[in-house]
Amino acid sequence: MATAPRPRTTTRDPGELAARLTAWLDRRLPGVTVSGLAVPGSNGMSSETLLFDLEHPDAPVRGCALRLAADPAAYTVFPVYDMARQHRVMGLVAEHTDVPVPRVLWLEEDPGPLGAPFFVMARAEGRVPPDVMPYTYEGNWLHAATDAQRAFLEAESVGILARLHDGFPAKEAEFLLPGGAGSPLRRHVDAQRAYYAWVVEGLAPSPLIEAAFARLEELWPDDEGPAVLCWGDARIGNIVYDGFAPAAVLDWEMAACAPREVDLGWTVYLHRFFQDLTVGFGRPGLPGFLRREAVERRYAELTGHVPRAMDFHTLYAALRHAIVMLRIAYRQAYFGEVEVPADPDRLILHHAALAAMVRGDYWTGEE
Questions:
Q1: Among 110, 166, 233, 311, which one carries the catalytic annotation?
Q2: pTM, two decimal places
Q3: Which residues of the chain have pLDDT under 50?
């Protein structure tokens, strides 16, 4: 998988999208001109992003970003893309906290205009730690920064989680709870089980992922802690920075009502995912950056809440990421980009790290 071609991120035609978007906007701002339409090179394989400028005297902003649900005919990464939910979460975060989120503008739930629901927001200006090649490799602004600059960015980024979790009224987040019975954490895990079942329906299951679910039950925390609004995809690659300070927090499609540690585990592990890949290719990466012990300590200093059951939550983050990676790999196979090996666990790029977490020796010497 490390040498496989980069998975395609869209099956849509940019020119056709531009024409359809212009027609849709003209109904809201007659005479509007759309210019500078671009698809970012970092566009993901889930919701897609379009950037463009508006030319109109009544335009609420000039620079816009559009988040478009994945093409349902393109072997989507997730089974459902609820753009109204994302739009609502971002509006509520702006209303109840000082966490910087882009101003949300228009929501379109009808798939007719662009082929799928979407919403438009103000474009955030700044720079983002890259995923390809990951910021843990040489040749990007974060890797080239000083230790002090990275330490500042790390502290401020953990501060985003602290301000979100402490500032957002927990009751307002309950609409994000999945259906079913049990605590918010139990419902969250059950929803991931359902997602995994969807991913492997009619395909080879992953023994490693199933072992990880079993290990979660063994590690289940005695005290789950209160549920808060969790960002969901809580990683620095989803923050726009002004210098080294967070200027905008993006990608709320995985927002949840869950314990704080769901976000903390994701933040810690998603960095380790990139760091492990980098070390695996013989590069030092950023070994002193976003270490688990430092993230936990900073969060406790800011909130008074000492993170609990982090072995559980980092394993859960790696497990959730594995399910996504398996779906992306099966998507690549669908498009003829890779062949499925005899052992489906090999499709999970971080299978060795996940196996070590299941055994219980991944964090040895790291805490």
A1: 233
A2: 0.93
A3: 1-9, 42-44, 367
